[in-house]
Amino acid sequence: MDKTRRRTALVTGASGGFGRLICLELARKGFYVIGTIRDETKKGALLEAAKHLGVGERVETVPLDVTREDAGAIVAAVMKKIGTLDVLVNNAGYASGGFTEDIPMDEWIKQFETNVFGLIRVTKAVLPYMREAGRGTIINMSSISGRIAFPGLGPYAASKFAVEGFSEALRLEMQPYGVHVVLVEPGSYKTEIWAKGLAAFRADPDSPYGDKAERLLEMVRHTANTAGPPEEVAKIVVRIALEEKPRFRYPIGRGVKTALMLKRILPWRWIERAILKRMP
Q: 39-92 pLDDT, tens per residue?
């Protein structure tokens, strides 16, 4: 990479959580960062943090709702303005929970519109520019839930499994053009996703799954309170952004690598038994 050329990055879902931290860490490493924010009234926290760190001139925000049909056109307009893009971080997303029978179809559709189709819209908009430039890194924020699905998190797990499959196909498509596609697979971290997920969790007391849903909510609350610092994820994203040949998957977080190893080597019935023992 030409070190005299300004490196650029586009980060979706930049108003908080991983997205805000990733923007700040990229800017600290010299990137010019465009952070997209669905609710423009929330851009102040990112811009103030960037100013406080002395990198305010390297961070800007763009209003973008990845679920809208015009999202691709907005990203294409950004691309025309900046001319080139070194890194795309597809971070926008949220977690929906509940037991399948209790979750209405519109919630399943909403989950996929944000976590899957929104990610694809943004990616498709930058691909022509990266392909023509013969370089670029696309970092898709997946989850341990994209490798191991847990009861009560069906919509979220299904969306992240979809992101994993899409990323695997896209990586093979884009490698001949010098474009790297990467998955970051965090475990539990202290971000807003837990608060949002808990608020949207469907635990109908009249449901046959009511007791299980309450137990799952307790587990999620405990996980949220004991989760690791999200700065770890921001740092690994920046490390990937600076690598010439990043590998495909980067699992990160307490117990994540162990869980993935056990899934590979243990009979599936053992995995099921271990998970279900934690449920009422």
A: 989 999 999 999 999 999 999 999 999 999 999 999 999 999 998 999 999 999
The sheet carrying 179-186 orders its strands as 59-63, 32-37, 8-11, 87-90, 136-141, 179-186, 249-252
CATH code assigned at 65 = 3.40.50.720
For residues 238 and 27, what is the distance between their CA atoms, to the nearest angstrom? 10
Total structural domains within the chain? 1
Give the three-class secondary structure for 6. Answer: coil
Tell me if residue 156 is catalytic.
Answer: yes
Record the tokens describing residue 69, joined without a space.
């049909």
List 94, 156, 189, 209, catalytic entry = 156
Domain-located, residue 3: no
Question: Looking up tokens 């929970």, which residue turns up?
Answer: 97
> Helices 192-200 and 210-226, interaxial angle, to 10°?
170
Residue with tokens 């053009």: 177
Question: Domain span at residue 49?
Answer: 8-277
How confident is the model over 248-275, as pLDDT tens digits? 999 999 889 999 999 999 999 999 998 8
The answer to whether the CB of 138 falls within 8 A of the CB of 179 is yes
Give this prediction's pTM.
0.91
**Cα(173)–Cα(11) distance, integer angstroms:** 22
